[in-house]
Amino acid sequence: MSQSLKAYEQLREEIVAWDLSPGTHLSEVLLAERLGVSRTPLREAIQRLARENLVRITPGRGAFVTDVSLNDVTHLFQMREALETYAARLCARSAERGAFAALADDLATSADASASIERMDALIAEVAGNPYLTESLALLRGQVRRLRQPARRSPERLADATREHIAICRAIADGDEDAAATAVVFHIGVSLNTIASMLVGGPVTGADMQRDGALRKIDARRAVGDL
User: Does the predicted model carry a pTM greater than 0.90?
Assistant: First the structure.
């Protein structure tokens, strides 16, 4: 493994896990010493993280872990909705969609739902079969994983998210692309509201929802179905 890749993977994991919190200054001298790499590959790693919007580079001041603002999160989730609903539709049309039935069973019985959800992300990218879509989704994954961490500290939210992912998997396995897309939109909307509650101390309501257009009023029964 190259020094640049080593530094990138280590820093990315620390940012995603919130070991490096938003706003943290990434000192090249300190990081190079801690990670055991030279400063040139470290800069390459930081530049790569900046392209994923996990790091912000300010001329004359250096690199910082990006802040998590409601506005940025909303924009990210709007992009998620656009990409992930289409990916779910492609998966529902695929001859390989049966793999999602097994994954739904795993999600329903797994003691480690987080790992199964990560597998679902990978399976969607694989079965969708569109390399351009896969690349675009990959650019979002680090930020999405980062935002999932605080929510995963809530057993109730993790249980709800698991049910939402099961609904998506079952709709895909049934070849029902409309139901799959609806379940994805529902999940993304609930996830955004959960994260917004953590950021602003309360749910996104009325004016915020109308302003951003990020949350849709969807019948939960229609989206999730009888689980």
Answer: no
